[in-house]
Write a structure and sequence with these properties.
Blueprint lengths: L4 E4 L6 H10 L8 E2 L2 E2 L14 H14 L3 E4 L10
């Protein structure tokens, strides 16, 4: 069974510690990321909080295909109802 931990990172709230603990506990982060925040192939942050339902589901499906088990977002919040 697949599970994905989605961490809403709030600045100055020990978020980096949580991301580092995820790594230490063998969670798999998005291949290209900055402090757990997924990046595209050019190093630009994926603005997951702007994704519509279809785009967010496609992103989650991509994470599942790639075995990603931990995602962080810190510059906006995705649709938590969908998650």
């Amino acid at each position: 069974m697949y599970r994905l931990i989605w961490f809403q990172h709030f600045h100055k709230s020990a978020g980096t510690l949580i991301v580092n603990l995820a790594k230490e506990n063998d969670e798999l982060l998005f291949k290209n990321n900055a402090n757990g925040n997924p990046l595209d192939e050019n190093g630009k942050r994926l603005e997951l909080w702007n994704y519509n339902s279809k785009e967010l589901i496609e992103f989650i499906d991509q994470c599942e295909r790639e075995g990603v088990t931990f995602v962080a977002t810190e510059h906006g919040s995705p649709d938590f109802r969908l998650l």
